[in-house]
Write a structure and sequence with these properties.
Radius of gyration: 24 Å
Oligomer: single chain
Strand order of the largest sheet: 1-2-11-10-8-9
Largest sheet: 6 strands, mixed
């Protein structure tokens, strides 16, 4: 694998010059007026997703330089190394193979793919675990006595399955309710326990190591509640998604499904962590979810860079972050079932690329991950869109829309689509014939992602698209997108502070922490 950090390539300097001469003053409105083919040139189809990139601050010359930047940085080599099972997570010496979780069995893979043969053993393990997990999911679906499934996890063990179950609500089996507990704040678990009954609830404990403090605190509280309410059959009402089978057995759990150290938490919805989704939509639906993601994997692996949608999105992210200096991106899904999609993307991108040093540990001289935030439309229009249109900061917006609804209520979907189209149009056009409070500068960029329907297949493709897009920007920045050391320090300090809260000892603490601790104990 031969890679070069993006700022050390000839194209970086060329892009800086390009930004100064035309990028800084780029205006979408004359660009559309001068080029009737702009929409066709800057839009494309990818598996199960159509993308309109034409309302972004980019032209053919800039795009060509960005593609050169990708080539000179060794993006293709880095991508190929990932798909060959190389240990590209260098700080932890691990492969990065979440993509393997949705790969067909070896017998169904193109036999010309030498790279996949490198991971044939892992692929066989993936399918053995998948088959066992889906058989269990079908058994739970067929068990009318189980009416509630409570997933207890945090981070990727919560955001992925929660987002997907909500997104695919129209496909969820009748007679089952799904609950997600992640916060160590006891109010969250207590609220769920009020809604369920011992005899009809299945608890899923999602923790790779079975030691995650928030998850295990909630798990032990759920077990104590279960036993206090007269529950006796732990093995029937608890299952674990973990590699620590011994710890799960000590807890009283006999049903476990594992995954591998080459699966990062925020990339784990495709693994046993996806069990809540498999129970919700069934084995065939879960396989469709995997298939949609695999279709996007193959697009990313094989499509030329200029027609490769994850690459084009990742390059736009670099252009906006490092040249325009935009600090955030707003995600606006115009489908209420995607209500947790922005939160899912927050973790995916900010935990992956929120790094200040490159893969060799050298401090970076440029910015990395933007702040990712958003809410479903049309709610966001009546909240923060004011800032998007008239605020002092330019915030690129990524709209997601779905062509065909899953409901039959007349008029609603037409109005929803009219709103998303109008918001993208208004951001670009603005209103320059009015002054003062009614003046809109316009020329505010947006990307438009369109799905024909929101199905397991299209959702899988959409999520995989975002995973690979994050890979692209992280690869160019030269960072390791697959570790997360930044979450560790607070965990270590919390153990010390917890003991001090119980003892009252403030010796050696900074003045603020000591003062707050004393006030909490008073």
């Amino acid at each position: 694998m031969n890679t070069t950090r993006c700022d050390r390539t000839p194209s970086w300097a060329a892009l800086q010059a390009r930004f100064e001469t035309s990028g800084r003053s780029f205006d979408l409105r004359p660009e559309f007026a001068a080029d009737p083919q702009r929409f066709a040139s800057f839009s494309q189809s990818a598996p199960h997703v159509f993308a309109d990139l034409s309302k972004n601050l980019i032209d053919e010359a800039t795009q060509a330089l960005l593609l050169d930047l990708a080539r000179q940085s060794g993006l293709e080599s880095h991508r190929d190394a990932m798909f060959a099972g190389a240990k590209i997570n260098s700080t932890e010496q691990r492969a990065v193979m979440h993509w393997l979780l949705r790969n067909p069995p070896l017998a169904l893979v193109d036999q010309g793919r030498e790279d996949i043969k490198n991971v044939a053993t892992e692929l066989a393990q993936v399918h053995a675990t998948l088959d066992a997990m889906l058989a269990y999911a079908e058994a739970v679906r067929a068990d009318a006595d189980i009416t509630d499934v409570v997933n207890i996890g945090i981070g990727g063990s919560d955001l992925g399955p929660q987002m997907a179950v909500l997104a695919l609500d129209e496909f969820v089996t009748p007679g089952k309710r799904f609950h997600f507990v992640s916060n160590v704040d006891g109010h969250e678990l207590a609220a769920v326990l009020k809604k369920v009954k011992v005899e009809s609830t299945l608890f899923l404990i999602a923790s790779k190591t079975f030691t995650t403090i928030e998850t295990m605190t909630n798990a032990h509280s759920a077990k104590a509640w279960f036993e206090a309410q007269g529950g006796t059959h732990i093995a029937r009402h608890f299952a674990a998604l973990t590699t620590n089978v011994a710890a799960a057995n000590s807890f009283g759990i006999s049903t476990t499904f594992g995954f591998w150290d080459w699966v990062g938490g925020r990339y784990s919805v495709w693994s046993a962590i996806g069990l809540p989704l498999a129970i919700a939509i069934g084995a065939p639906g879960f396989r469709e979810f995997l298939a949609g993601a695999h279709d996007m994997d193959e697009h990313f692996r094989t499509a030329p860079l200029a027609q490769n949608l994850p690459v084009r999105l990742g390059l736009l992210d670099v252009w906006y972050r490092n040249f325009h200096g935009f600090t955030s991106r707003s995600v606006a899904p115009y489908h209420c079932a995607l209500k947790r999609y922005p939160a899912y993307l927050q973790q995916l991108e900010m935990e992956s690329n929120g790094k200040r040093v490159d893969a060799s540990g050298e401090a970076l001289p440029f910015s990395t991950s933007p702040v990712v935030w958003g809410e479903p439309g049309t709610n966001g229009q009546h909240a923060y869109f004011q800032m998007l249109h008239q605020g002092t900061d330019v915030v690129p917006v990524e709209f997601v829309a779905v062509k065909k609804p899953q409901h039959s209520l007349p008029g609603h979907h037409t109005l929803l689509l009219a709103n998303v189209l109008a918001q993208a149009q208004a951001l670009m056009l603005g209103k320059t014939d009015a002054g003062g409070h009614k003046h809109f500068t316009g020329n505010r960029p947006s990307t438009f992602l369109l799905l024909d329907e929101l199905t397991p297949t299209s959702l899988g493709a959409l999520i995989a698209l975002q995973e690979h897009r994050v890979f692209v920007s992280g690869s160019l920045w030269g960072i390791n997108s697959f570790d997360q050391w930044g979450v560790e320090l607070g965990k270590v300090l919390a153990k010390d502070v917890e003991a001090r809260l119980l003892s009252g000892d403030t010796a050696g603490l900074d003045g603020s922490t000591a003062g707050l601790l004393a006030r909490l104990q008073a």
